[in-house]
Design goal:
Largest sheet: 8 strands, mixed
Radius of gyration: 19 Å
Order of helices and strands: HHEEEHEEHEHEHHHEEHHEHEH
Helix content: 25-40%
Length: about 325
């Protein structure tokens, strides 16, 4: 059944604003009466699978963040730390790139940033930058992963976090990393239209939108201001974008890129991206002093960049070259 209802005042959660986009989101997710989630094949490979799966816990401060380690049977010795974007902490949105990395022999570790999934720490200013260094330390201390064989792939907010700690790894891929966030209604409409390009129809056969786009309304535990009450808000809440904008500005991806020195950096961005603009990608690329490449992907926006098989292959090849 297709749900096109609008939330009533005070109804459900306490999310604010973007009622039109919430209704369109529910409409899109409700058009598929079935669910195809390719992440299940990654999480449950079976005896004949090409990789193994371990569920771990990464210490961050006084707490632990759930983590998943995917190890290919033909492991070449390299490891890639995948850092997810805002609210998108599930495996499903990243299944293409994880699958490609495993096919190339790279081990992959995913974990939850503050405020996401099973990580009990709220997302707050001033502490989000502790997450990636903690995961890198965990890989070195618990799994004996050395810098020369360690890469990192960061998506959106995860890209800003990855760049901030990027000098700790040998190679880094930044996917759709913003330098600031300020979306107009026209920008939102353009991002929505970008979901309906022909390339996305083939993807829907393998991964239905009710899996790939569920993260848009998944709650994130956010602490807005020092000592403020922790609230659960989603990506469409009008408070989320200013909060992430401030978070990204504090992380300062351009300045972070300037500190990379010998870290090999691949910057990938959608040509249609209104959140992490191509101009932001160029600024990050220009700031990096070490080995680097820039790829602007045609007909891809902020949400569809990670769903490109070509982008997955590009990232895997980058790690092939540098790890």
């Amino acid at each position: 059944m297709i749900d096109i209802s609008w939330p009533l005042p005070g109804q459900a959660q306490a999310q604010r604003g973007n009622l039109l986009w919430r209704s369109l989101h529910r409409l899109l997710l409700g058009t598929f009466p079935f669910e195809r989630n390719p992440a299940l094949g990654l999480l449950e490979p079976g005896a004949g699978g090409i990789h193994g799966v371990r569920h771990l816990a990464v210490p961050i401060g006084d707490h632990f963040s759930p983590a998943i380690l995917f190890t290919p049977k033909k492991h070449l010795g390299s490891t890639v730390l995948l850092v997810h974007g805002t609210s998108a902490s599930d495996i499903c949105p990243y299944y293409l790139v994880i699958r490609e990395l495993l096919a190339h022999g790279h081990q992959v570790l995913t974990f939850h940033l503050d405020g996401h999934g099973g990580n009990p720490r709220p997302l707050r200013q001033g502490s989000i930058d502790e997450c990636v260094p903690a995961a890198i330390h965990f890989l070195a201390a618990e799994l004996d992963v050395e810098r020369e064989h360690l890469g990192m792939l960061g998506v959106s907010l995860g890209g800003a976090c990855a760049l901030h700690a990027g000098d700790s790894v040998k190679a880094l891929v930044s996917l759709g990393t913003p330098t600031s966030l300020s979306l107009t209604e026209l920008d939102k409409a353009a991002e929505a239209v970008g979901l309906f390009v022909p390339e996305m129809y083939q993807l829907a056969i393998e991964a239905t939108p009710n899996c790939m786009l569920a993260f848009v309304t998944d709650p994130v535990r956010v602490e807005c201001g020092e000592g403020a009450t922790c609230e659960e808000i989603d990506l469409l809440d009008v408070r989320m974008m200013p909060f992430i904008d401030e978070t990204v500005r504090r992380l300062d991806p351009v300045a972070s890129a300037g500190r990379l020195n010998d870290t090999a950096l691949l910057v990938v961005n959608g040509a249609w991206d209104r959140q992490a603009t191509p101009e932001a990608a160029v600024a990050i690329f220009d700031a990096a002093p070490g080995p680097k490449e820039l790829a602007l992907v045609p007909r891809r926006n902020h949400f569809t960049l990670i769903t490109s098989q070509a982008v997955a292959e590009l990232a895997a090849s980058w790690f092939d070259e540098w790890l």
